[in-house]
Amino acid sequence: MTLYSKLLEREAQANPIKVGVIGAGQMGYGMISQISTIPGMVVAGISDINLSNADRAAQAFNQSSKQKVDILTSTDFREIVHSDSVEVIVDATGVPEAGAKIALETLIAKKHLVLLNVEIDITIGPLMKKLYDAAGLVYTGSDGDEPAATAQLFEFAKSMGMKVLVAGKGKNNALKVSANPDTAAEEAASKQMNSHMLAAFQDGTKTMAEMNLLANAIGFVPDVPGMHGISADLKGTVENLDLKENGGVLDKFGVVEYVDGIAPGVFVIVEGQNEGVKHEMNYLLKVGDRDHHIIYRPYHLCSLETPLTIARAVLEHDYAIVPLGAPIAETVAVAKRDIKAGEKIDGIGGFCVRGVVETHEDMKKNDNVPIGLVGGNSVAKRDIKDGTFLTYDDIELDETTTVYKLRKLQDETFA
How many other CB atoms sit within 10 Å of the CB of residue 10? Predict the structure, then answer.
């Protein structure tokens, strides 16, 4: 049966998938609105730190749904996670500490977890995947987000026997490495976004985290710290994301990358595995005789596609994107302004640091700090210059946070 057929079957049985959503901001609200017209699926609980957001999302669901649902709303996510009316949880917070608590609580509640929280997945995803597997539960990233959309193209190509050289995404926002909630406030308000979230997109942290997640899922690495971030159209993407000896920018293949100029699309660059396949690719794609070709999806629908992951988790015990095992890449903290000794250092989307992706090996060698651990009561131990890759000698992390404790367990697990 197809996924849609299985949803129709749940609808006919009057036994819809009952979804609990944590976080009713832009992404959560959009996903809840989408679920309202999907057969065989309902939203049964919504939590947000602002109860009005949860109530607004619940109202939007019932305005579109054929069947009105008595949706539990709360500021305490635990009420939703442990509700008997909920069978699967979606984390739409985008906050590492919140994500750590949600992941742990959902595991205790013995429920599947779908993430719209790349930030927590790159910080403790390998550990969570291992724990959820042990419990017989699904832990997964979301369809529609760039990592999963790109991973699907990767598997499409690999399943046909092709050699994948590069996998990546277009960047939606111009890179502004010093962006912060104040500089992003006006644009965020116009887009009904959280200014911290928009700042994380603008300063590049989101792009780094997304390609970090993709790297952990397919085994590729960034070619250089921060990737190259070329500007190109589709033709230029293929030409530039080639080896230096061929006129490109890459030191090696098997890398993740982002491109300014092809957003909101995702892509893989492939090489046909033999002369017959290469001939057919050149014939079918009509772009001239080439050794390499781009397989491109010109859109990703973010949270609107998340219900596909929810359905797959519950109905097929399957996932959209997960870590292969031990971390392959890391997104580490880099100062985006001068920081004084004794100053409190905030985290993702804040005023102090941005994320840059590098290999897990480089992170260990350089003693760099995963950006998902920065925040809470983290404090600078000494003066830190703008552009510095933070080390543990630079920062006193808040060791009381759940994310710190779980990351420490992850480090011990995969040592």
Answer: 17
